[in-house]
From TrEMBL:
This is Phenylalanine--tRNA ligase alpha subunit. Gene3D superfamilies: Bira Bifunctional Protein, Domain 2 (3.30.930.10). Residues 114-340 form the Aminoacyl-transfer RNA synthetases class-II family profile domain. Pfam families: Phe_tRNA-synt_N (PF02912), tRNA-synt_2d (PF01409). The gene is pheS.
Amino acid sequence: MILDKINQLLDEVRQMTAANAEEVEQLRLKYLSKKGAITALMNDFRNVPANQKKTVGMKINELKQIAQERINQLKTDTETVECDAQHIDLTRTPYPIGLGTRHPLTIVTNEIIDIFSRMGFVLADGPEVEDDLHVFTRMNFAADHPARDMQDTFFVSQHPNDVTKNILLRSHTSSVQARVMETTQPPIRIICPGRVYRNEAITARAHCFFHQVEGLYIDKNVSFTDLKQVLLSFAREMFGADTKIRLRPSYFPFTEPSAEMDISCFICGGEGCGFCKHTGWVEILGCGMVDPNVLEQCGIDSSVYSGYAFGMGVERITNLKYQVSDLRMFSENDVRFLHEFESAD
């Protein structure tokens, strides 16, 4: 008797249909709830003769499993139908779509690239995991230069017999310049944006990684005057047409002569304020004429060609442009900070 009832319910369960979620719920209540048909069968199980309990028990379990699977399938089907119906309802008010924005470092990097691209510079790229040959040796760094120490640079592996084969995280994008000069004959006019790494304590003013944009121009009869005019044009495009620049003598292993470039403070107009430490000037980059040793190291005849190079930190430019007080904010992924740049994108 109970087996006949189970078989009857199996036929009903296999033929179940539903047009919407409400009908699916009614079927679940009819068969699987505490007062449902399958629960009633399980309550009658105690009256089954002992020699039939195994067979009946297996059939009840099969019925319950099939019913559960069928109801789950109907639930999925009705949700899909309802979803499809919503998608084709052209009168429905659309859901608001939250649009993101570019990271402030990306905004500034793209602006720098755009300015120099309009002056004829092309993009060049290279690996972030580099060898000493391209990071230091080709750039005229002395064998005992502090940058080659573990406390200043992240080394991945070190070669016991040949320092040029040491593997490290590049400390500047000058390695890209070295690779381009090795494989390209002048004229060369490139900018090299990218992430660089230095073994420094993380503070509001420094980080163990940051971003650079470096530039290189090599050709015949290139002079410091050419460099000054390019940098003046860049400063005025980036910070405003009234921006002034000044070049102070400095030292870099890869340029000679070398200079640090300051811009007139765009907050106080050069009058002096807290932002520029009451000097009227703010430092933004380093530059100079490419050292002849660098040209020779990279296979370029320094008696025929000359060139200039410059490099700037993107975080530094972004700090100046948007007055961000803490470098760590650029890498903490705080959406409240990022939302402040929606209008700048």
